Amino acid sequence: MSNTQIIADSFPALHQTIGDKRLVYLDSAATTQKPQCVIDAITSYYEHDNANIHRGVHTLSMRATKAYENARQSVASLLQASRKEEIIFVRGATEAINLVAQAFARPILSVGDEILITEMEHHSNIVPWQLVCEQTGASLKVAKVNDDGSLNIDSFKELLTKDTTIVAFAHVSNAIGTINPIREMCALAREVGAISVVDGAQAVGHIPVSMSDVDCDFYATSGHKMFGPTGIGCLYGKHALLEEMEPWQGGGDMILSVSFEETTWNNVPFKFEAGTPNIAGAIGLGAAVKWIESFGYDAMVQHEQELLAYGRDVLQSIEGVTLIGASEHNAGVIAFTVAGVHPHDVGTILDHEGVAIRTGNHCAEPLMRRFNLSATCRASISVYNTSKDLDHLGSAVQEAIRMLG
Amino acid sequence: MSDLRELYLEMVTDHAKNPRHRGKADPYDCIGTGNNPVCGDKVVVTVQLHNRTIESVKFDGEGCAISTASADLMAEVLIGKSVEEAKKIFKGFHELVTGEGTSDNLPNKLAVFSGVREFPMRVKCATLAWHTVIAALDGVEDVTTE
Ligand SMILES: Cc1ncc(COP(=O)(O)O)c(C=O)c1O
Fold it and tell me: For the whole model, what pTM was predicted?
């Protein structure tokens, strides 16, 4: 962890105090802080290259188009997609999943078809499927989660049948951090002829993610959870599937030619990027990808796993603290409750100690119900955190117990 | 920075830990359910009325210290009040916790929630039971005015 101070130094927002306490940011699962290079890339774009893309003949437009398309290439390389056309820029994981639900699933689903998800999904990987079920008459099936927070793979296999059309699941759970065996799950889906949709919002920027290795059909990400800006994310889709799909939204840039009699769609991925996109966001995301690559996933995984083990120890040694869903294959997310102190109160008291965590149901109400809870506290780790941060977390939790426990 | 001790006054933590009015009014004339999606809290408030006077208020459900204490002290101050008075007190209480008013014209005990104004994220906790009771009373009003 020797270079962690150097890392933390490149995230300007981390250098502040809350009241008179040093900020300890343990809410990266909600959104990560941004490195200076991402902030600079966005500023520089607006200061020097700002123009609309894909249509101008002038220099600025050409520069903006190049930067936007370079960002697509960077994301494609990071995700090990086979070609950059497989990367569609969207608003975030939510929009990516909705795009698949509406543009891919809706036209092919009918009564009798099944969509399989899991109990640990974020609402954004539940509600779009509920909507499409309502629209088509398909039904939703839900695979169980074990007590330790891991997926019950037997339940998953049992529910996977010849009627399963789509299987959608998180790579990493946002609420408890479980890392799912997605390669195996995608292979199982393929065996029954189902299409796999992976919600990767919590994976990219934490653990290596390779489309060629996982062999999923769709993969959704959010830029703001991987050191990039808000309002930008990606949908990866297998090229052949994207080619087959009808567009999702209509507008400029997604067409080759328009007349009142007939309109021809643009090629993939532009077919799915109607209107002026978030150009600055994509460029910022490209910078974030470069940052991730320069750091390297090996170092990232090692650092976060060390901190996860350390943080779990710190919390477990405090009487009254219970870890929730602490599975063996876990990303740097620690969910916990404190006996006698409601998570919301824990959150307020921790904030007073400068420690930022998230409390509540974490947009995963069904999972909370699965654990008979209405809310938990969640500390989530990123590369810029240190063991000192987790010590602060521990002492702040003790302060909460002193006050209200 | 705002002082935590202003938020978690002893009276607040005492009522949070040992609420006096938890349960269900039996029989009750109106019932309301309040949800705070931010923290997953849920409160069910039941009210027993005699004419238009509140005889008993009870609350049940799970909540943080602020929402539990607020529900409990709400029940305490509303007993014996008319429906109209209850609404007036709620208006004043809302102004108190959002920093738009003072506790001058409020039942004394509610002054312990003055500190909430420094914690905008907690206003919903402090007002959840109140919103719920007013909705419940409105339900009854609709019935009685028919
Ligand atoms: C697992 C998971 N999926 C999807 C999302 C939705 O991401 P966004 O709000 O960026 O669209 C989140 C964000 O919290 C998440 O954690």
Answer: 0.93
Q: Is B9 on the interface with A (CB under 8 A)?
A: no
Q: What is the DSSP letter of A48?
A: I
The neighbour count for residue A54, using CB atoms within 10 Å, is 17
Q: In what order do the strands lie in the sheet with B53-62?
A: B30-36, B41-50, B53-62
The structural domain count of chain B equals 1
| Model ipTM value | 0.88
CB proximity under 8 Å: A 353-382 to B: 359-361, 365, 368, 373-375
* Domain contains B144: no
The angle formed by the CA atoms of residues A133, A268 and A229, to the nearest 5 degrees, is 80
pLDDT digits (tens, 9 = 90+) for A319-365: 999 999 999 999 999 999 999 999 999 999 999 999 999 998 889 98
- Decide if pLDDT at A215 tops 90: yes
Q: Which amino acid is present at B109? A: K
Is A377 considered catalytic here?
Answer: no
pLDDT tens figures, A151-204: 999 999 999 999 999 999 999 999 999 999 999 999 999 999 999 999 999 999
Which of A120, A174, A224 to mutate for ligand 1's pocket (most ligand atoms within 8 Å of CB)? A174
Pick the CATH number of A39-294 from 3.40.50.720, 3.40.640.10, 3.40.190.150, 3.30.70.330: 3.40.640.10
Confirm whether B130 is domain-assigned: yes
Residue B46 domain boundaries: 3-139
Helix and strand counts by DSSP (H, E) for chain B: 5, 3
Residue B145 domain-assigned (yes or no): no
